[in-house]
Amino acid sequence: xxxxxxxxxxxxxxxxxxxxxxxxxxxxxxxxxxxxxxxxxxxxxxxxxxxxxxxxxxxxxxxxxxxxxxxxxxxxxxxxxxxxxxxxxxxxxxxxxxxxxxxxxxxxxxxxxxxxxxxxxxxxxxxxxxxxxxxxxxxxxxxxxxxxxxxxxxxxxxxxxxxxxxxxxxxxxxxxxxxxxxxxxxx
Length: 187
What we know:
One of its GO terms (cellular component) is membrane. By secondary structure, this protein is α+β, with helices and mostly antiparallel strands. It has helices spanning 2-51, 64-71, 95-112, 151-178, 181-186, and strands spanning 74-81, 86-89, 118-122, 125-134, 137-145.
């Protein structure tokens, strides 16, 4: 009987030590990933001044769209709603550009009817305006690039931007689900 009790005690101690070692290694692994992530962010912060537009504009501190812009050699990405209000952007002050581009798209749409995109060549860059419908919202993606984008790149960029926007909109739908409907009606 004593042997069984000693065995059970040693077994439980062994399992607890094993679980403790496992959690310690997981904690260290997460800490390592966090350190690597912070180094990447710091490197992006160092890189941003070298690729930022020359017009005195600065990139924002959010790196989801900046990563897309850097990977495709794009200067700016601005996402606005149908009223011209900025949803997401790579620039700090993109309100004026977003509102102007969305109004240009709407004006051309009234003139020409059903259009898929608008491409404007200005001085040394291209301005692409794409309509996008996401979760019932009419959005416009405005891309400014010094190089012309081909159709395949456009689709890849829009797909990645849509993925980023889904993250933004998923948090909004989560918040709406957490708030009771009566509270929304009283507001």
